[in-house]
Write a structure and sequence with these properties.
Blueprint lengths: L6 E2 L4 E2 L1 H15 L7 E3 L17 H12 L7 E3 L8 H14 L5 E7 H16 L6 E7 L6 H19 L3
Parallel strand pairs: 3-4, 5-6
Antiparallel strand pairs: 1-2
Length: 170
Amino acid sequence: MTYPQDFSDQGAGLGPQTILRLRQIVLARRNGRDIQAIVLACGLGPDKTEYPRQRRPFSEMMKDWLVAEGTFQADMIHCSMDHTPWNCIEVTLETIRMVREKKLPGNILVVSTGYHLYPRMWTTWVLICGGKKEWRLAFFPAWEGTYDILHELLGTIKYIPLALWHRWRC
């Protein structure tokens, strides 16, 4: 699974950082990772003034990119029908829900840009699912992505109590 990051053309297309993350999924498979399914749970941007040209959920746009790239078949990519998840904790929780609903394996490979994975998404996934027998977590960062260290650190701090609270619910 991966997280979206940016748009191009006011929401009409995927941005370079999101495409970088999708390329990392392709690279993971080419490097021998056994990827049997991809779960994409991100929806529509809530700020219509910032993304006035977004007509389709982020997850569907990402799926189309992966299929067009040629490494993955459309039937192995699962997009959430809930188009409200937007922030990383919502996307993570919707991904967990989809994995369970579709009875997919709990072997989760989280792909994102390096400083988004470490510390934020690593902390979130480990706090929610770490140590539970049905989940096996792995992370595959793309280190060449852009990041804002303060944003990532504050996001990690914000997500710790949320992740701990959701650990008991998941």
